[in-house]
């Protein structure tokens, strides 16, 4: 029997505040981009909560002591293009030494299935904790496809981070990858007939980059 997937909904007041501002149609492109960077940094704290540590001996200005540093190979952030880049910057503010991978996927509007057009990953994926970022988990097809590609590249420990998730997307992702931890700022009501999250925040990529 496969283990049940872990789904974490962040209920921190700052996360709720920033997400509500992002949902507002009146929020400007610059404001939306800034809020995405800020909220992603907060979400990165939760995503990195269980990273392994190892003891090290250091000298403070006053005495020698035992501290703790991240153990072994560190992180790889993987952005699902293009909207994932809106969350990537804030996470790199927190962990600037992390490696970065990109997966280019777009959703076929007729079938709602993902089509891959780009893939660039570090060579040592099996040795790193991989945090996949994409603002929206709608149908879950793109996320499931991206994670399958990462596993094929050797990734063994994967966390998926998004701003909003639909129940349909959660069901799809956790069914396909029950070993992947899912972290989201909110679970919205449903998908509409076009596969958009309701109430949602619109198209995250368009709002981040000022396109339509």
User: Order of helices and strands, N to C?
Assistant: EHHEEEHEEEEHEHEEEH
Count of individual beta strands: 12
From the alpha-carbon coordinates, what is the Rg to the nearest angstrom?
18 Å
User: Kindly, what is the distance between the CA atoms of the first and last residues, rounded to a whole number of angstroms?
Assistant: 44 Å
The amount of beta strand, in percent, is: 25-35%
Helix content: 25-40%
Mean pLDDT: 91
Low-confidence stretches: none
Q: What is the CATH T-level topology?
A: Rossmann fold
Structural class: alpha/beta
Number of individual domains: 1
Structure overview:
The chain is α/β, with parallel strands linked by helices and 212 residues long. Helix 1 (13-23) runs antiparallel to helix 2 (29-47) and helix 2 (29-47) packs across helix 3 (85-94). The strands form three sheets. Strands 1, 4, 5, 6, 7, 8, 9 and 10 form an eight-stranded mixed β-sheet that branches. Strands 2-3 form a two-stranded antiparallel ribbon. It has a two-stranded antiparallel ribbon with strand order 11-12. The chain is globular and about 65 Å long. It has a single domain, classed as Rossmann fold (3-Layer(aba) Sandwich), CATH 3.40.50.2020. The protein has six helices and twelve strands. Helix 5 links the parallel strand 9 (157-165) and strand 10 (181-187).
Notable characteristics:
212 residues; alpha/beta; eight-stranded mixed beta sheet; two-stranded antiparallel sheet; 6 helices
Topology diagram in text:
Layout: E1 7-9, H1 13-23, H2 29-47, E2 53-59, E3 64-70, E4 75-81, H3 85-94, E5 99-107, E6 114-120, E7 129-133, E8 136-137, H4 141-152, E9 157-165, H5 167-176, E10 181-187, E11 190-191, E12 197-198, H6 204-209
Parallel strand pairs: 1-10, 4-5, 4-7, 7-9, 8-9, 9-10
Antiparallel strand pairs: 2-3, 5-6, 11-12
């Amino acid at each position: 029997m496969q283990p049940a997937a872990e789904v974490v909904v962040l209920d921190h007041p700052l996360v709720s505040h920033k997400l509500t501002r992002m949902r507002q149609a009146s929020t400007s492109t610059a404001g939306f981009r800034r809020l995405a960077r800020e909220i992603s940094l907060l979400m990165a704290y939760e995503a990195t909560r269980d990273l392994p540590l190892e003891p090290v001996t250091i000298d403070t200005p006053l005495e020698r002591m035992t501290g703790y540093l991240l153990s072994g190979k560190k992180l790889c952030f993987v952005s699902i293009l293009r909207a994932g880049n809106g969350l990537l910057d804030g996470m790199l503010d927190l962990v600037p030494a992390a490696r970065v991978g990109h997966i280019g996927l777009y959703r076929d509007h007729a079938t709602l299935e993902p089509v891959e057009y780009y893939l660039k990953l570090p060579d040592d994926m099996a040795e790193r904790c991989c945090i996949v970022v994409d603002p929206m988990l709608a149908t879950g097809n793109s996320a499931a496809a991206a994670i399958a590609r990462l596993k094929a590249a050797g990734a063994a420990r994967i966390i998926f981070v998004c701003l909003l998730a639909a129940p349909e997307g959660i069901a799809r992702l956790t069914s396909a990858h029950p070993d992947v931890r899912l972290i989201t700022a909110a679970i919205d009501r449903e998908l509409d007939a076009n596969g958009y999250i309701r109430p949602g925040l619109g198209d995250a990529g368009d709002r981040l980059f000022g396109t339509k």
